[in-house]
Design brief:
The protein is an alpha/beta fold and about 625 residues long. Among the domains are: about 250 residues, Alpha-Beta Barrel (TIM Barrel), CATH 3.20.20; about 80 residues, Methane Monooxygenase Hydroxylase, Chain G, domain 1, CATH 1.20.58.930; about 45 residues, no CATH class. The strands form 4 sheets. Strands 4, 13, 14, 15, 16, 17, 20, 21, 22 and 23 form a 10-stranded mixed beta sheet that branches. An 8-stranded parallel barrel has the order 5-6-7-8-9-10-11-12, surrounded by 5 helices. Strand 6, helix 5 and strand 7 form a beta-alpha-beta unit. Helix 3 crosses helix 4 and helix 13 packs antiparallel against helix 14. It is globular, with a radius of gyration of 30 Å. The N terminus is likely disordered. Bound molecules: pyridoxal-5'-phosphate (PLP). Pyridoxal-5'-phosphate binds next to helix 11.
């Protein structure tokens, strides 16, 4: 029966039609949510054969394309439905995933919609300033700005970019006025408003009175007066708000929209140059597929989001008898999350059940004697009682060991007997007509640790930092039973370097159902990884960037791989922390010389050491299996 194990991972709930399972029990990728699908396991095997080792981050540009079509499509439909008298534009906030290949893929996919870019810092502006773009595509400049940033933004205008400088702090407007004058150019600007209505979810504090960014209503009024006094009122083109990322409820979006729409109409009545209404980002991704207002989910659809935005601003403009503005959305997460999958490989499993005690070993200690009796007497009728006794005995094992009345060899024997007893009790509990409440403790005790070749800190920082849920599933063997309860541990020597929170039926659960390892290869995929993770990831334990590849399906449904970016080498990560390659080799040479002199190694051995060291410097920072 193929799809019997499909359910435990709730794939249909979160995959949005991009992923599925085929008859062989492999995960499939459907970049356009239609019939055309590729086998993710085959892709993985082919990459490994080519010497591209896990962890590998795979980007599916087709999915990216589809997300952009889908989002824009939702707005087009809403515009039609409400008879809205203007259009919708997207601007991609590059902070969400600034990798060059991603930005290029987004721009390619968004070309026909004149998709723009949003930058929030000087380095981001410089990164994209020289990219070729559609003359009408907007370049939105956000973030804290100094004179250099503003000069660059104004010069971009001279280079044919439609640059809009978004004023986030009052002082910035004075700078723009002065610099534009000295450069002899006109500017186009927007105001970021600080709304009183906040978002909901983890990033709630990005909005509201204490938000870091944006202008209070009185600051906006002051800025308008300043523009007027300089005769530059017509510079004002855009009004913007951004109340946080991963907005979990539609109510918060509606409240913000109502306030923002009022601001827009009041200002636009007096400033007819105002023609863009920019609602920022925040459109959420349903990571756990629960369609709820929990932090890793959202209680609304993309269509509902679009209808509320178009409906609210449209109605406000109708009432105020002003033209409808072009609506700009700066969705980042909702565009790039789905297109990245991280492939990791299980390298070992530790299992508390994996012990075989020697039942014939002489019972030379009362504790061991008792454990052996428990084994003998274990049956369904007494299994709960024996479980309680076993827990008590476990404490005595430690006490007697510390006191010196139980030897190390005896302790080891006793612990093996204890573990195998609990494993047997677990089986009996499962057969009881009603599963006892102690089962939860027992489950936790019997949890297995699957060690995987990756670093949480490098590849899934939000899983560690804010408890963000990401779907994790085996990408093959899905038509075999997965009955092992496991958590995932990474390669780092940090006890936080693990994933122990997974998508559950309702909310999350603390284990993942996995297959027996059987010495592998056993590959897992971490899904919906495309937003924020890559750029927020760090070098904890000096594990560097992973291998990255772009994959797409050709006309025959075969994988085509491109744009391989090899992961960091040891040499590269050491360089980040100021270890210089040449210096390291120099130091190695002098160590070797001393060792030869003192007769510890031969000349031949020294050559082998040198070779190994150099090879290691050029190798991948992860385990090569
Ligand atoms: C971060 C950011 C975004 C993107 O937010 P998402 O939640 O990823 O859609 C959009 N606009 C601005 C101004 C931002 O700072």
């Amino acid at each position: 029966m193929p799809n019997q194990n499909r359910d435990p991972y709730f794939i249909d709930r979160w995959s949005r039609g991009y992923f599925g399972v085929n008859a062989e029990g492999h995960i499939t990728v459907k970049p356009n949510r239609d019939e055309k699908e590729g086998d993710l396991y085959s892709l993985t095997k082919s990459l490994v054969e080519q010497g591209i080792e896990p962890p590998i981050l795979v980007r599916f540009d087709g999915i990216l394309h589809d997300r952009i079509e889908y989002l824009h499509g939702a707005f087009r439909s809403a515009i039609e439905e409400f008879g809205y008298r203007n259009g919708h534009r997207m601007a991609y906030p590059i902070k969400v995933n600034p990798q060059r290949h991603v930005v290029e893929a987004v721009r390619q996919a968004g070309k026909k919609y004149k998709m723009g870019l949003e930058v929030g810092s000087k380095p981001e502006l410089i990164a994209i300033l020289t990219l070729e773009s559609e003359p009408e595509a907007l370049l939105l400049c956000n973030g804290y700005k100094d004179a250099e940033y503003i000069s660059l933004a104004l010069m971009a205008g001279k280079l044919g970019k439609r640059t809009l400088i978004i004023i986030e702090q009052s002082y910035e407007l004075k700078l723009v006025i002065d610099i534009a004058e000295s450069l002899g150019v006109e500017a186009e600007i927007g105001f970021r408003m600080k709304l009183s209505n906040k978002g909901t979810g983890r990033w709630e504090s990005s909005g509201g009175e204490h938000a870091k960014f944006g202008l209070f209503s009185y600051e906006i009024v002051d800025c308008m007066e300043l523009l007027e006094s300089k005769g530059k009122s017509e510079w004002l083109k855009l009004l913007h708000f951004h109340i946080g990322s991963q907005l979990t409820t539609i109510e918060s979006i509606k409240n913000a929209m109502n306030e923002a729409a009022r601001m827009y109409t009041e200002i636009a009545v007096n400033y007819p140059s105002l023609s863009f209404f920019d609602v920022g980002g925040g459109l959420a991704v349903d990571y756990d597929g629960s369609r709820s207002n929990t932090d890793s989910s959202m209680n609304y659809s993309v269509e509902e989001y679009a209808r509320n935005i178009v409906g609210i601003i449209g109605e406000a403009c109708l009432d105020a008898e002003i033209p409808d503005p072009i609506i700009i959305t700066e969705s980042g997460r909702a565009i790039v999350s789905h297109h990245c999958v991280l492939l990791i490989e299980v390298i070992d499993v530790t299992s508390p059940t994996n012990v075989t005690p020697d039942y014939d070993c002489p019972a030379d200690h009362p504790i061991i004697e008792e454990l052996l009796t428990m084994h003998e007497e274990l049956c369904q009728e007494y299994c709960r009682e024996i479980f309680h006794d076993a827990l008590e005995l476990k404490e005595r094992i430690l006490e007697e060991f510390v006191r010196g009345t139980l030897k190390l060899k005896e302790r080891s024997h006793a612990e093996k007997l204890y573990r195998s007893l609990l494993t047997k009790i677990h089986t009996l509990f499962n057969e009881l007509p009603e599963i006892p409440e102690e089962m939860e403790d027992l489950d936790r005790f019997l949890m297995e640790i699957y060690f995987c070749n990756f670093s949480v800190f490098q590849s899934l920082p939000d899983s560690w930092a804010i408890g963000q849920l990401f779907p994790v599933i085996p990408i093959h063997r899905l038509n075999e039973p997965a009955e092992h309860r496991g958590i995932l541990a990474d390669l780092s020597c940090d006890s936080d370097g693990k994933i122990n929170n997974f998508i559950g039926k309702k909310g999350s659960k603390d284990f993942l159902l996995l297959h027996p390892y059987n010495n592998g290869p056993y590959y897992l995929g971490v899904f919906l990884m495309g937003a924020y993770q890559e750029i927020l990831g760090g070098l904890h334990n000096l594990f560097g960037d992973t291998n990255v590849i772009h994959a797409k399906l050709d006309a025959n449904g075969n994988w085509e791989e491109s744009k391989l970016v090899e992961g960091d080498t040891v040499e590269e990560v050491l360089h980040y922390v100021q270890y210089n390659n040449e210096k390291l080799l120099e130091q190695l040479h002098s160590l070797i010389e001393q060792s030869i002199k003192s007769g510890r190694i031969t000349a031949q051995e020294s050559a082998a050491i040198k070779k190994k060291f150099k090879q290691a410097l050029e190798s991948y920072t992860y385990l090569v299996i």
